[in-house]
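Pinned message: reference record for L,D-transpeptidase
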Amino acid sequence: MGVLGRVCRRVGTVVVAAGVVVPLGVVVAAPTSAAPAACTSRTGPYQRQVEAALGLPVDGRESAADCRAIRTYQADNGIRPAAGYAGPVTYAALKRRSAGGEGGCPTDVGRIACVDLGRQVSWIQDGAKRVYGPVQIRSGRADFATRTGLHKVYYRALNHWSTLYDVAMPYSQFFDGGIAFHAIDGSVTSPPGSHGCVNMRPADAKAYWDLLHTGDEVYVYGRKSGT
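Predicted structure (tokens):
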């Protein structure tokens, strides 16, 4: 039973999976852990754009699921009120996120996977050109924060199984000890977060599997609220 078989939490050698989400608002402030406002049923002027940026079904109409996802994004990124309204401030924040966000990602290393912990998003780029994403991810929770820095994919397992947490980790790509990109069942928007791994929707994890290879670099930056 090797180290990677016990994966996704790393305390010396080990690490595991969990997650977070993203939305829009009115006034930008420092990230806060305050309870978000009640969900709005109003369709915002940037509804379609925000739905697309968050990987939601794009129909231009505010649903309860849309509101929950948008509200979570707003709460995690200090946008107030965090009511799930797809307004101009949230859209502007998501546009900055799509461009790489503050801190950025190296543009001189060829193919690289970028992970922005502050916004809970990831994308793949070649130089300065984005080739996939951004997509929602779920990184480590308090006491199990995903470590920042420049790493490399060093091990890949299509159907990995964590013996530590007794859970499947499809499309696992390890880049920092027991920390890996991998798919999860269920929502990547549910709190509190992983035990270090970068959790992804199955379709996104598969796309990463197809686009990345052993030796490709991974840059993790920023800080998730609450970690």
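Pinned by admin. Summary line: The chain is about 20% helix and 25% strand.
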